[in-house]
Amino acid sequence: MPAAQLSDGVCNLPGGLVLDDGRRLGRAELRPLTGREEEWVTQHAHTPAAQMATKILSTCFVRLEDMPVDSEIAGKLLVGDRDFLILQLRRMTLGDRFAAVFSCPACKLAMDVEFLTQDISIEPRPQSAATYTWRSEDQQRTVRFRLPNGADQEAVADLPVDEAVQVLLERCVIDDGGTPLTLAERSAVIAEMDRLAPQIDLELDLNCPECGHSFTTPFDCTAFFFSEIRAQSRHLMREVHYLALHYHWSEAEILGLQRERRRGYLALLNETLRPN
Ligand SMILES: [Zn+2]
DSSP 3-state assignment of 106? Predict the structure, then answer.
């Protein structure tokens, strides 16, 4: 099953949310950010990306199958599904083209990198169950677990990496049979989680134009999207000002417009007020 976009705003989750009754919810409908969400992202610059993703997803979700999505449901979505949805929101709000700046680890020079949404690979893993069981090779040990979700991401957002992995594992292991996991068992369970979870490949293979050095760098699309919105926030106030000045709409009405619509009116104003 493709995890691709079906039509504007509608997409299939690469993992899906399996409810307690076994039903899998996979068809998601989103709407782009409005000025109101752009403003919220800007005003909460110090909020961890996981919390921000939950808030923005719950606001911009139209429905998941036939269900409304609040922050609790957004928190239950798998990490890969959330990354995928934020990628879709970014595409709907800002378009397909990414322009990022990376620093070459060899010559330390900054390099501009452009790529498209389609360059980010998505590995769908449609979920069949809410929990899974890992068994050791000798079948002596079984561990029941679930896959990490948004609420887990939020819980570990402020922790150092080692501690975050530990806490994440503790949250996701549902039954360890009463015996703490050994180091090897922990690694095996984490590997099993990786195998079962939908993956969004957020690693870029880059080639430095200055020194020719090839390297791979992680790319956090969610954090990047929020930083893009913040970087453009100084335009938002100016845009609201122009629209209020000419159309006499209230600030709340203008902030309620989706970005593309807002920009559309501004382009029309520009045409009208500055004829060639
Ligand atoms: Zn270089």
Answer: coil
Give residue 24 CA to ligand 1 midpoint distance, Å: 46
Q: Where are the domains of the chain?
A: 5-124+200-231, 132-197, 233-271
Cα(99) to centroid(ligand 1), Å: 18
Residue 142, strand partner residues? 135
Supply the pLDDT for residue 35.
95
- The two tokens of residue 211 are 């020194």
- Taking the centre of ligand 1 as the mean of its atom positions, its distance from the CA of residue 214, in whole angstroms, is 8
Q: What spacing in Å lies between the alpha carbon of 79 and ligand 1's midpoint? A: 33
Summarize pLDDT for 132-179 with one digit per residue, the tens.
999 999 888 999 999 999 999 999 999 999 999 999 999 999 999 899
CA distance 84 to 199: 9
Of the pLDDT bands very low, low, confident and very high (cuts 50, 70, 90), residue 233 is: confident
CA of 166 from ligand 1 middle (Å) equals 36
CA of residue 108 to ligand 1 center, whole Å: 6
The number of beta carbons lying within 10 Å of the beta carbon of residue 163 is 11
Helix axes 259-273, 35-43, angle to 10 degrees: 110
- In the chain, DSSP assigns E strands to 5-7, 10-18, 24-30, 61-64, 97-103, 110-116, 122-123, 132-135, 142-145, 173-175, 199-200, 203-207, 214-218
pTM of the model: 0.90
How far apart CA 50 and CA 28 sit, in angstroms, is: 19
Whole-number Å distance, alpha carbon 171 to ligand 1 midpoint, is 41
Selection from 66, 76, 1, 55 nearest residue 28 by Cα: 66
